[in-house]
Records
---
Amino acid sequence: MNRRALLLAAVAAATDSVLPELPEPPVPPEVPPADQAAPVPNPDARPPAVGPAGTQLRPEMFRKGTPDPSLGYATGSRFQDNEERKVIQTPGVRLRVPIE
């Protein structure tokens, strides 16, 4: 137990000399600015809307989003992967399970 205490004291002393001195914090003004209001909480704030609770299972068509035009494609052109070349998109089922 004494070894651990000595080791901790040595580490604390070593890190104390390695850390730089922090500057003094600025002194607040004697007269606060009158043109700015202090931040206050929003009394009209509402909690986020709660979605349907429980497990959901619904059919869905899986399709990738549109490509980003900033990726270097010329105007009007875009990359099509194999899924987009299909006449009928792949149907599927989406399962959502809430985690609490």
Note: The helical segments are 2-18, 82-85.
---
Amino acid sequence: MSPNPPLMAPRALVPLGISLALLLPLAAGARDAPRPLRTLTFDCTVSVADVRETPGDTQASHWIRLARGTTAATSPTGTGVSEDARQIDVKGSITVAVLSATEDDAGLIVEVVENAAERSRAKVEVAIGPDGGLSYRAADGVNLTEEEIAVVRWLARGFYGDHPREPGTAWTVDQSVNGRVDVEHYKVLSRDRDRVTLDYALVEKEAGVTGYDATREGSLVYDTALIVPVKATFQSSSRRLVGPTMSTVRSRVTLTLTADSFGHLRP
């Protein structure tokens, strides 16, 4: 088990909107660029509870490695099942640098990095399709957190597009493929000038040995003029069977845009 598993399965490896081949040649040129086209910073608050239940473990207690440099105790539940539990509560930031934009398919190449205790990882370059489909190198998957993936998807140039802005209207984004369910639901709760407040829900499912079942619910404030998420709050739950162990991860995330090189932030 990776010491830093993603909370929910990332939407990568299936190129959507931008091919992964595009990411490779642009990467070298992007590093030579004197400055990004746009830089965004988000404050983030993350609370994660990870419970792992293993049947048939008769040990009274033992210690396991749950995260980078940390351990937690495990004890039997009285039903022949041992339970390992750990919770973290951290504050930090996510920085997204837009390295390039492609006009033929309205895509973006960005570099994203999170800086928070027990959540910090290496920078990852991600290609974003116009509808929020993501592509990145398979090896970089372990370096993307749930909150980073959410932010990057909402930066897609066609994320909002011609979707309605009137309160009460709703739409669905379905990126299910090859038997994998990946569906997002959005509903407009209110509107103020160029900003809309949305109700947001996500359902992800995948069968098989590496299968999982995940949901996410929350709200999103989005600036349709600047094409950027301004604030988001959501809670999620995911279940995954890893060998004999059932891993259940529940998280609460708050994201707030604090800096944008494109313009002034307004309350």
Note: Residues 20-32 form the longest helix (13 residues).
